[in-house]
Structures are given as structure tokens and as C-alpha cells.
TrEMBL record:
Interacts with sigma-54. Required for activation of most nif operons, which are directly involved in nitrogen fixation. GO terms for molecular function: ATP binding; DNA-binding transcription factor activity; sequence-specific DNA binding. SUPFAM superfamilies: GAF domain-like, Homeodomain-like, P-loop containing nucleoside triphosphate hydrolases. GO terms for biological process: nitrogen fixation; phosphorelay signal transduction system. The keyword ATP-binding applies. The lineage of its organism: Bacteria, Pseudomonadati, Pseudomonadota, Gammaproteobacteria, Cellvibrionales. This is Nif-specific regulatory protein. The keyword Transcription regulation applies. Residues 213-441 form the Sigma-54 factor interaction domain. Keywords: Activator, ATP-binding, DNA-binding, Nitrogen fixation, Nucleotide-binding, Transcription, Transcription regulation, Two-component regulatory system. InterPro entries: AAA+_ATPase, AAA_lid_NorR, GAF, GAF-like_dom_sf, Homeodomain-like_sf, HTH_Fis, Nif-specific_regulatory_prot, P-loop_NTPase. It comes from the Bacteria.
């Protein structure tokens, strides 16, 4: 066999015997590693490390088929980049999709001399050097069917030894089969899939809640577990998390998975109601209790009788109102404003805040006794930047929701998803949803590509048309307007001075600032 020289600085062998010797040594180390399996995932990663360091096969990736969805899901990836490793668990390939999906579908190796010459190659993780070759082999079960794919990239351009590398990778695939089978059948088949799917079925499925909460990362699975456990009891729950992390969604998941699901889920955002109206909103009022009380009104507590009352932004209520709420939580009874009759209700309370209530208690801003009443069980939602691996699935879910709302088909390209995964989402899932909605508006075709994804929220603002100075003033008292339109109309009328607009709407500056933020209104600077 003619000697050959490798051009790479990373791995070089001057002859075929040298290559074979290195591969042999790598196989010995892999075999040793497989005999000492402690954690299957760690072992798979270790094997990809051996391929990278000892056999000149970089960017190794092992994808495993998911029996329920006939999809491939990343089981392990070798990369120096933390964000790639994190994002990898959210990547899926359909059988037949791209090159990896075709290896699974046809149960045959595929070798590319140069990735860039194969248009069907999907580099979903932006992992590869597109000018170098690629080798992918099926991982086969005992009956010969493909249960996964092992792929890696030689760190030198294609040469005479590509068949040797392919044979070597096939041998590694065969050695891995038993381990990956274990992973599929034991860890994922029995634990992950059944446990997670059971939780998801419970959280999503039961009372029409299916397909509303997305999240497969460990920290979200913990949240689903907590929801499942707490839902069946009447305990008060405090949902904590940054704005836009899904606190309201989780509160409704608790309600719709509880024995109270057939009764009402009533919400009140404590920050959006002026303090003077909060009492009558919650407890109701009798006719004539105040000037505008022209008839009796049942408050949210009464409306939620038998069901769940969700008190959002509970950290925003004043000390005076905290005292009133404490009494109701202790005694489960109250009087309507202007009334004398004591009303008893059977209401489960779920409260939420993005504040650190413990700190607020320490600072004397939030009553300690009320805090303990609310914090019987707390559920903390992780910010999106701590679960970037959820972004591909979340984005697909959200774009499906947007497409349904717009009555059209919409699809995100892999490039668009890569772009979404590269950002840290300070506004969490709400910001992701708004970003996708903007992208959908900016796209006439079905396919949303990376170039219309605007990550700072500046381009293509959905409120832009309303902000044009030429627009005639809109009457913010018009009953046809929804809350967002009313806010924008008042801001327009007030020359975008928030304090002025707040006065027009009978809100405090803090309340209007909060609504502007949650409704993602781009504040116009005049
Ligand atoms: N895990 C998730 N799966 C699907 N959609 C989600 C998820 N988390 C949040 N969303 C969506 O993101 C948006 C914001 O969520 P939500 O209103 O529940 O957040 P929040 O934490 O209550 O926000 P805020 O504190 O500002 O009130 C909603 O449209 C919600 O449906």
C-alpha cells in the first residue's frame, strides 16, 4: 500500500500501518471503557473523546432512535463548546431527514468526501468543518435493525484511507450497539420516556391541556414532577420565576390537572389593577358601595368558588392590601365592599411573582405571615437561558401556535433554530414567542429563515404601524380596543410620556410600566 501524508495538524499518520495501529489502540481503549460502564451517557461521551483524540475522528455524535416518534435524538456529542453540548439534547432528526436520518432509514453507512458538496447535509448543531469529509454508520440492534447512528468527521481531507476509517467506525458502532441498546431500552425506554411521557401526559393531556407546556430538560422535568405532585391537593402554591418564564401557564397546568379542573380558573394580575379597585376586584362590591357601583358585583374569589384563583404579581400589593388578603387566606371568608354579609368560599390559591419574596420580607416590604401562607409549596421556573436545549422544541411548538393563529403553514429552518439557540433570552419564553411572531409577520413564504429572526426585538416591531405620527389619535376609551391597543392609544395621546398616560388610564406609573413591559410595547422616544 502506498504511503500517504496527512495534511492536518490535529492528527497525522504517515502510512496505513500507522493509521491501523492508532485505530487498534483506540479500539482497545474503547473496549476497556465499555467494560467499565458506570453512566451510559458518560461512557458514550468518553468513547467520542477517544475517537477525537486517538483516531483522528473529530466532532463525534451518537444519535439514538426514539421508538415513539421514529425520530433520532442526540445521545452524546463531542464538542468543546458548552452551548453546543447543551443545545444538542434538543436536536431531532426524522427518519430520512438529512444525511443522519437517511443512514437510519436505509440502515447503511454514508461517506462524504466533502460535506459542502452534499446539499442534503443538515449541520443542525453547526458542528462540522464543511470542507472536510464525514462518515456516518448505523448502530444496529441484535436483529440487524438500525437503532441509532454514529457519525464523526476525519480531521483531514478525503484520501485513500477513507474505506479504512469507515470499517473502523463500523466496528466501533458494533461495539457500541449493546451499550446504546441499554440506553434505549433501560434509561430512555423505561425511565426517561415513560417517566417523562407520563408526566407530560398528566400535565398536558388530561383536561385538554395537551400541547401547552413544552420542556424536556432536566430542570423542566423537575417542574412537571412538582406540578403533578401538588396538583391533586388543595395546597396553596407559589410559582416563582422571571417574567415570561411560564408562571401563568404552570398555574393553569396545576388547575387543569387538579380535581378542581371542572370548575373555573380565575386570574387576577395584582399589578395591573389600581390599588383602589383591587379590593372590589377580588372581593366584589354591593350596589352603591361607591359612585360607580351601579349594581352588585361578584369578585374573583366568588367567581373562583370551587376552582382556583391565580394571583399574578402578588409581590406588587401594598402592605395594607397584604393584611386584607392574609385574613381571607386564613379564614376563607370576606365581605364584599360596602356589604355586611360574610361570604365563605372554597378556593385554591396559586400565586406568582418575579420578585424574591424572601428578600422583600427581610426588607420589611412583604408581610412574613402572608409569605408563609402563600409559600406552602413553591415551584421555581428556570429562565430560558438555563434550558437552551428546550429552544428547538419550544420554537417548533410556538411557531405551530402562531401558524394556527394566522391560518397558514409556517416552518423554521435549521439556520433559524441555530440562531434562536445562540441568544440568551432575557425576556424568556414570552420574548421567544414575540420574536417568532415578528419573524412570521416579516415572512410571506412558509419558511422562516435566520435572516428574519431579529434577536434584539428592534426590527419589524408589531406595533410600528400604530406609532406613525401621521396616524389620527385613537380614542382610548373605545370599548372595541383590547388592553394593548388601549395602552398604545393612551401613550399616543400622552405623547409617550408614561406618567401622563398612566393618569389618563387611572393607573400608577408603576402599573403602566409593568403593562408596557409585559405587552412588549416598543416605547417610542419623542
Ligand atoms: N414551557 C412552555 N411551553 C409552551 N409555552 C410556554 C412555556 N412557557 C411559557 N410559554 C408561553 O410563553 C408566554 C409567557 O408565559 P406566561 O405568561 O405563563 O409567563 P409568566 O412567567 O406568567 O410571565 P409574567 O411574569 O410576565 O406574567 C405564554 O404565551 C406562554 O404560553
Amino acid at each position: 500500500m502506498a504511503p500517504s501524508t496527512f495534511a492536518s495538524a490535529g492528527f497525522s499518520a504517515s502510512s496505513r500501518p500507522e493509521l491501523i495501529e492508532r485505530q487498534f489502540n483506540a479500539l482497545c481503549r474503547i473496549s476497556h471503557s465499555l467494560c467499565q460502564v458506570t453512566s451510559i451517557e458518560d461512557t458514550l461521551r468518553e468513547i467520542l473523546g477517544i475517537l477525537h483524540n486517538d483516531a483522528g475522528l473529530q466532532h463525534g455524535i451518537i444519535t439514538l432512535s426514539d421508538p415513539e416518534h421514529s425520530k433520532l435524538q442526540v445521545g452524546a456529542v463531542y464538542s468543546d463548546s458548552e452551548s453546543v453540548r447543551k443545545a444538542s439534547s434538543g436536536i431531532r432528526y426524522q427518519s430520512g431527514e438529512g444525511i443522519v436520518g437517511r443512514i437510519l432509514q436505509h440502515n447503511q453507512p454514508i461517506v462524504l468526501g466533502r460535506i459542502s458538496s452534499e446539499p442534503r447535509f443538515l449541520d443542525k448543531l453547526a458542528l462540522y468543518d464543511l470542507e472536510l469529509p464525514f462518515i456516518g454508520v448505523p448502530i444496529r440492534d441484535t436483529d440487524g435493525s438500525a437503532i441509532g447512528v454514529l457519525a464523526a468527521q476525519p480531521d483531514v481531507p478525503a484520501d485513500d484511507y477513507m474505506p479504512d476509517r469507515t470499517t473502523f467506525l463500523k466496528a466501533v458502532g458494533d461495539m457500541l450497539a449493546q451499550t446504546t441498546r441499554l440506553l434505549v431500552n433501560v434509561e430512555r425506554g423505561q425511565n426517561l420516556a415513560s417517566e417523562r411521557d407520563e408526566l407530560r401526559r398528566e400535565v398536558r393531556g388530561k383536561y385538554g391541556f395537551e400541547n401547552m407546556v413544552v420542556g424536556g430538560t432536566d430542570n423542566m422535568r423537575r417542574v412537571f414532577d412538582q406540578v403533578r405532585r401538588v396538583a391533586k391537593w388543595d395546597s396553596t402554591v407559589l410559582v416563582l420565576g422571571e417574567s415570561g418564564t411560564g408562571k401563568e401557564l404552570i398555574a393553569s397546568a396545576i388547575h387543569y390537572n387538579s380535581p378542581r379542573a371542572h370548575k373555573r380558573f380565575v386570574k387576577l394580575n395584582c399589578a395591573s389593577v389600581p390599588e383602589t379597585l383591587l379590593e372590589s376586584e377580588l372581593f366584589g362590591h354591593e350596589k352603591g358601595a361607591f359612585t360607580s357601583a351601579v349594581k352588585q358585583h361578584k369578585g374573583r374569589f366568588e367567581q373562583a368558588d370551587g376552582g382556583t384563583l391565580f394571583l399574578d404579581e402578588i409581590g406588587e400589593i401594598s402592605p395594607m392590601f397584604q393584611a386584607k388578603l392574609l385574613r381571607v387566606l386564613q379564614e376563607r371568608e370576606f365581605e364584599r365592599v360596602g356589604g355586611t354579609q360574610t361570604i365563605k368560599v372554597d378556593v385554591r390559591i396559586v400565586a406568582a411573582t418575579n420578585r424574591n419574596l424572601e428578600e422583600e420580607v427581610d426588607r420589611g416590604k412583604f408581610r412574613e405571615d402572608l409569605y408563609y401562607r402563600l409559600n406552602v409549596m413553591s415551584i421555581k421556573l428556570p429562565p430560558l437561558r438555563e434550558r437552551l436545549a428546550d429552544i428547538p422544541e419550544l420554537s417548533q411548538f410556538l411557531i405551530g401556535k402562531i401558524a394556527k393563529g394566522q391560518g397558514r403553514q409556517l416552518r423554521l429552518t435549521d439556520g433559524a433554530i441555530r440562531q434562536l439557540v445562540s441568544y440568551d433570552w432575557p425576556g424568556n419564553v414570552r420574548e421567544l414567542e414575540n420574536c417568532l411572531e415578528r419573524a412570521a409577520i416579516m415572512t410571506e413564504a412558509e419558511t422562516i429563515d435566520a435572516d428574519v429572526i431579529s434577536l434584539n426585538g428592534s426590527a419589524g416591531s408589531i406595533v410600528a404601524p400604530m406609532l406613525q405620527p401621521a396616524n389620527p389619535a385613537v380614542d382610548f376609551n373605545d370599548p372595541e380596543l383590547d388592553e394593548r391597543e388601549r395602552l398604545i392609544a393612551a401613550l399616543e395621546q400622552a405623547g409617550w410620556v408614561q406618567a401622563k398616560a398612566a393618569r389618563l388610564l387611572g393607573m400608577t406609573p408603576r402599573q403602566i410600566a409593568y403593562r408596557i413591559q409585559t405587552m412588549n410595547i416598543n416605547v417610542r422616544k419623542i
